[in-house]
Write a structure and sequence with these properties.
This protein is 38% helix and 19% strand. It has one domain: Spore Coat Polysaccharide Biosynthesis Protein SpsA, Chain A, CATH 3.90.550. It has 7 helices and 9 strands. It is α/β, with parallel strands linked by helices. A 7-stranded mixed beta sheet has the order 3-2-1-4-7-5-8. The protein has a two-stranded parallel ribbon with strand order 6-9. The chain has helices spanning 16-29, 47-52, 70-80, 130-146, 163-172, 180-190, 212-231; strands at 2-9, 33-40, 59-61, 85-89, 112-116, 123-126, 158-162, 195-199, 201-203.
Length: 236
């Protein structure tokens, strides 16, 4: 298998090294033909220096730029990828690269494989605080109402695409921040791609940068933007 792994990172100096080590060790153990693309989203700490320590291990680092958002960074990395399949995962390793074990048997049968924390087979090793958990349960209801039906968890940061899906979906996606996951799945469903949700083991990171109320509001506005973009024909 050929696989590009895209990791968006902003000020992840304390975590990116461990995440990259686990990715490299795992991908080598599976004898996967891989590349890892760390997309620096305007970091002001030592993220670049920590990433550069892995430069001889098929790890690439994007050029310096200002912060533009996670969605922008994922799109940048996926469009720069060159392997037959590409995935993105979070720098905090909340869904670890080892969860790919459950994806590998399905890669030839689906265009998109997405991790889902809301499947009954999934394991939440470290739960979110009550407020984030409550908002996290409410958001899927809005997603089903405004954008994507039939998906239990759109927001888990662990998704794998084949090359055809990458080329079509990421050429049409527009959202730069938290609502980008929903937009990707909206486009995928609109264009008839085969999607499968898979259970994973997930752990909350106490250092998460998510701001519950502000980011929840931003996500809601992104859902409206998806509907507006769709009505204007921007996903055709």
């Amino acid at each position: 298998m050929q696989l590009s792994v895209v990791i968006p990172a902003k000020n992840e100096a304390t975590r990116i090294g461990e995440t990259l080590k686990r990715c490299v060790d795992y991908l080598r153990s599976k004898k996967i033909d891989y590349e890892i693309i760390v997309v620096d989203d305007g970091s002001t700490d030592e993220t670049r220096q920590e990433t550069e320590k892995f430069s001889g291990q098929h790890v690439k680092l994007t050029p310096e730029r200002n912060n533009k958002g996670k969605g922008y960074s994922v799109r940048e990395g996926m469009r720069a990828s060159i392997k037959d399949h590409a995935m993105f995962l979070d720098a905090d390793n909340s869904t670890s690269i080892e969860q790919l074990d459950g994806f590998l048997p399905h890669v030839e049968h689906y265009d998109l494989l997405i991790a889902s924390r809301n499947l009954k087979e999934s394991t939440i090793a470290i739960a979110q605080p009550w407020l984030r958990s409550t908002l996290g349960k409410a958001f899927p209801l809005l997603v089903r109402l405004f954008a994507v039906r039939g998906i239990k968890d759109t927001q888990c940061g662990f998704k794998l695409f084949n090359r055809k899906a990458i080329d079509e979906i990421f050429s049409l996606s527009r959202l730069d921040r938290w609502g980008f996951d929903v937009e990707l799945l909206f486009i995928a469903k609109r264009r008839g791609f085969r999607i499968k949700e898979l259970p994973v083991t997930w752990k909350n990171d106490a250092a998460s940068k998510l701001r519950p109320f502000r980011d929840a509001l931003d996500m809601f506005w992104d859902l409206l933007r998806i509907r507006i973009n769709s009505l204007r024909g921007r996903y055709r």
